[in-house]
Prior knowledge:
Layout (H helix, E strand, L loop, with lengths): L18 H26 L4 E5 L2 E5 L2 H27 L5 H6 L3 H14 L2 H9 L8 H12 L10 H23 L5 H8 L17 H13 L4 H18 L8 H7 L3 H7 L16 H6 L25 H15 L11
The structure holds zinc ion (ZN) (2 copies).
One zinc ion binds next to loops.
Amino acid sequence: MTVATFPLAGRPATRKPGSRSLILAGFALYAALLGAAWWALPRFVPDQASLRLMGHVLKLHNIHDKILGNASLVLLILPCALWLECAVTGWEKSSLRALLAPSASIKTDMMYFVLDQAHVMGLAGRVMMLGASVISGLALKDWLAARTGIALDGGIMPLPLQVAVYFTLYSFFDYWAHRIGHTRLFWPLHRFHHAAQDFCVITGARIHPAGFVGIFVLTVPMTVLGATPEAVVWVNVAVAMLGYLIHSRIESGWGWIGRYVLQSPLHHRLHHKLDMTQATGFFGMMPVWDHLFGGWSEHNEANIAIGVDTPYRHGFWLVPDLLRDYRDFWLGLIGKRRYSPSEV
Length: 344
Ligand SMILES: [Zn+2]
Ligand SMILES: [Zn+2]
């Protein structure tokens, strides 16, 4: 059984005087180095290149965009989330410190994050989804436009309004995708995320690569609704940032913001509860959907155990767990899987 208690709640702060200044100075230094690298990239790294590999010539184009696109998550959004958390909680409680002496659960998070950034998980997802990952909303959008003459185009709105509108729409579809993830059929795939025993900022990235629900309930509708590429980038940044923060070690419900606007780390922790005797709640990245469609409650006890009662190996070697969960999904689909009483 996977059992964990919130190791941070109720403890007195152990932040040493001046540690916040050190954290701020460290982040300022990091930001300066990042700025220097940003400046140096177009000046010292060519945008096009040819590589000769085993007799073949490999041509690389738009190298700057590729580096900046891939690096923005790892070099900008994640460090900002880690820094923000550290500034609030102090070094002792921070995810940064936990990453330096990782628990078995956080080792899984770390390995998953590395494999995800190396596109291994994306590739595994394409195989596991048996081609479903290539489904795009573009064809549906064109079909609807041909039949109805209506093609939605978010570009008629100014970018900040587009980002606000599409983030709200994204969170609406994400709410339903998340609820579907908690149904008996799809739970084995979502369970991998809930198996985390400790929260750490990067736990947010730990999502089973067989993302069937996300393709149909999130990606396709968002494309049909005509978000411009610029809006998609900013919505993705906001989603990634919020995903990191709700898995942070910040012990806060964020007041009225956490109640109506954006999910807080406290409410997401309540969503990850181990105890399945009460219904799971707090599904939405925007809590307003929980208020409207179910999932909100006034429960706010932070000192709860998180995890699932399905055994997980935890640690760097995560392939058996991923494959077992994938097999359980298919066994459930063909009616060959037995459910334990505590399963959703
Ligand atoms: Zn969930
Ligand atoms: Zn989570």
